[in-house]
Specification:
The protein is α/β, with parallel strands linked by helices and 232 residues long. Helices cover 47% and strands 17% of the residues. The protein contains 10 helices and 8 strands. The chain has a 5-stranded parallel β-sheet with strand order 2-6-1-7-8. Strands 3-4-5 form a 3-stranded antiparallel β-sheet, with helices on one face. The longest helix is centred in the last third of the chain and has 17 residues.
Amino acid sequence: MRKNLVVAIDGYSSCGKSTLAKALAKQLGFIYIDSGAMYRAVTLYFIRNNISCTDELAIADALQHIELNFHARDYESHITLNGEEVSAEIRQMPVSENVSEVSAQKLVRREMVRQQQRMGKSKNIVMDGRDIGTTVFPDAQIKFFMTADPKVRAERRFKELQSKGDTTTTLENVFENIAHRDYADTTRAESPLVRADDAIILDNTEITPEEQLNFALDKVKAAMPPVNPDRI
């Protein structure tokens, strides 16, 4: 029986998984681990070093030279790739256009799952991704599966890119990217995106971030063990 509490959040791309996960972790005092950022950082490394997803030997070698770490700053979780802060760069379109192919690689997924399971061995965590409640932490006490209308997701992602200064990517590009990633995530052979049988569906097409946070908080608090008054 797991003693620490794990909140697993899975779902489609651009559904706001990270937004919810970070807010939950802050409210609960848990550690937030962005599994998607890990795959994006690996993708960035592959792009920079011309690692082909058809070359298993190159992938295996590359994974031996990738060190990922999270650190907190200004109440946000940041990721470093071999000591370099890459939190902003991994959200740009070149990475978005390649992350599904990279994350579908068996060797990549197995290494990331190993690292994620190590992170969640003893501390209360919130982790979001595609296979957290099915592969990484199938024994998580509380699981969410997030979804939203693809057009709404594209509009949200497009506005996010614009706010970060991206003036070249079009809404059509973003919509096509989301459609491609949905297909790749749900049809890949290694740990495809599926809803765990015990996951709570959270469709945020028509609700605000505050409303979804309150919904999730209620579910998590209901799953937390009661406080023993004799220990107070």
